[in-house]
Amino acid sequence: MSTPDAPIVQPSADVDERATLGARTRVWHLAQVREDARLGADCNIGRGAYIGPGVVLGDACKVQNYALVYEPAVLGDGVFIGPAAVLTNDEYPRAANPDGSPKGTDDWHAVAVTVGRGASIGARAVCVAPVNVGEWALVAAGAVVTKDVPTHALVVGVPARRIGWVGRTGHPLVAEGDLWVCPDTGERYAQEGETLSLVA
After folding, report:
1. Strands 62-63 and 195-198
2. pTM of the prediction?
3. With CB atoms 3.0 to 4.6 Å apart as the test, which of 39, 61, 128, 173 could cross-link to 165 if both were Cys?
């Protein structure tokens, strides 16, 4: 008998018995969660999404339909991965070795995409590992991230480049004197180089 806090897995989803699902996490139709993946509480894994072996998701993450999160990715609390976004894991992808033999797990080294707390990756964006996306950052739909994204940065394009800053609710910040202000919450941020920090 299930409890109110039990994870919910649709019958057509494929969740490995060695995966860990936090309280109230939902895995929707045709999604796959591989062995040793660890999903926190209140996560939502959309239709057809893929979570690779050993991938770690914090609490309250949302992985939208058909997104692909390859190992050894690590997502902080409250991370949003948009529809059909891809987090890669291979710097030098090849299907076969020079001698024609198929590549196996011992023939390459997986590298990670790390996404900080509260950050969002837009629909069909690609994060090319190894790369770090900072806390509360926003990667626009269709962007290709090839280098680290600063905390609170708004990045767009191919390759992705910073065009502004966003607050914790995702709204673009507005310059007011020496500070950046969130029009949604009124929070104020100070910029130093490529670093943005919340002013107490």
Report:
1. unpaired
2. 0.95
3. 173
